[in-house]
Amino acid sequence: MKLTPQLWKWDGTNPAAAWLAQCPPDVPVVWQSRLADDPATQSGLISLLSAEERARLARLHLREDQQRFLAGRGLLRLLIGAGLNLPPERVEFNYGPFGKPFVAPCAGTPALHFNVSHSGKLVLLAFSPAHEVGVDVEEVRREPDLETVARQIFSADEHRGWLRLNPAERLTTFYQAWTRHEASLKAMGLGFIGEQDAALDARLVSFDLALPEGYQGAVGWLRQTTAPTRGVTRKT
Questions:
Q1: Do 30 and 125 contact (CB within 8 A), yes or no?
Q2: Which alpha helices (H) appear in the chain, and where do they start and end?
Q3: Which residues of 136-161 are buried (b: 16+ CB within 10 A; e: fewer)?
Q4: Between the CA atoms of 100, 40, 90 and 75, what dihedral angle is there, to the nearest 10 degrees?
Q5: What are 192-232's pLDDT values in tens digits?
Q6: How many CB atoms within 10 Å of residue 127?
Q7: Main-chain dihedrals φ then ψ at residue 71, nearest 5 degrees
Q8: How far apart are CA 133 and CA 115, in angstroms?
Q9: DSSP 47
């Protein structure tokens, strides 16, 4: 099963005003957008950023890195503002111990968990009013260290099976596993999974996302119960 993200368009035709009220209680909502390459749109997004965010944007030297940050953080502000009935430029973020941002508490507004990921020309944003959530997207491309990383995220049996696949299947399967792994880590707010995180691992749920050709993505979240779930794969 794959979850299909909601599509955000930069032409102003998005039905975003009531999106948070329509969030299902048990599954995160994922939004998908292309990078904003129109100068007027980019200027409007910059006007929403805080001073600290503008400084971060200025430190990025590559144009696509600037576009990814601007689209991700600008759209995040637009969606949170619409969902919580706040002006986008008034949305404030705090940061967890591993750098994961969250909405600063505000009187009268509901809790909202979120996560952002971008790769290539695509940006994904995942939201949940009930669960810690993580999302990851990767542009599918051949990398020289794929074999090394595969050994880290697959179990021994899975790695042997992966090596028996043809090159195209191997590439797709690798990115499926990698994005599930990253989305799950981000849902937990961690930089890595260790044995001390087994209780969190047991609560993880992850699903692949239906994305355009050439991209692979996944969303992960933490259930409130300890019911058996599908989580990340451990190497044995």
A1: yes
A2: 39-46, 51-59, 63-84, 146-153, 156-163, 167-188, 198-202
A3: bbbebeeeeeeeeebeebbeeebbee
A4: -40
A5: 544 445 555 677 888 999 999 999 999 999 876 544 333 33
A6: 22
A7: -65, -45
A8: 6
A9: T
Burial label for 233, CB within 10 Å (0-12, 13-18, 19+), is: middle
Instruction: Give the SS3 label for residue 95.
Output: strand
79-85 long-range contacts, CB within 8 A, separation 24+: 79/8, 79/16, 79/19, 79/31, 79/125, 79/127, 80/112, 80/114, 82/16, 82/17, 82/19, 82/20, 83/16, 83/19, 83/20, 83/112, 83/127, 84/20, 84/109, 84/110, 84/112, 85/109
Output DSSP code: residue 26.
S
Q: Which of 37, 39, 180 is nearest to 121 (CA)?
A: 37
35-85 per-position pLDDT tens digit = 988 899 999 999 999 999 999 999 999 999 999 999 999 999 999 988 888
**What is the 8-class DSSP label of residue 205?**
E
Give every CB contact of residue 23 below 8 A, 6+ residues apart in sequence. Answer: 29, 127, 128, 129
Q: Is residue 203 within 8 Å of residue 226, measured between CB atoms?
A: yes
Name the β-bridge partners of 219.
Answer: 135, 207
How far is residue 22's CA from residue 84's CA, in Å, rounded to a whole number?
Answer: 13
Phi/psi of residue 169, nearest 5 degrees:
-65, -35
- The model carries a pTM of 0.85
Amino acid at 38: D
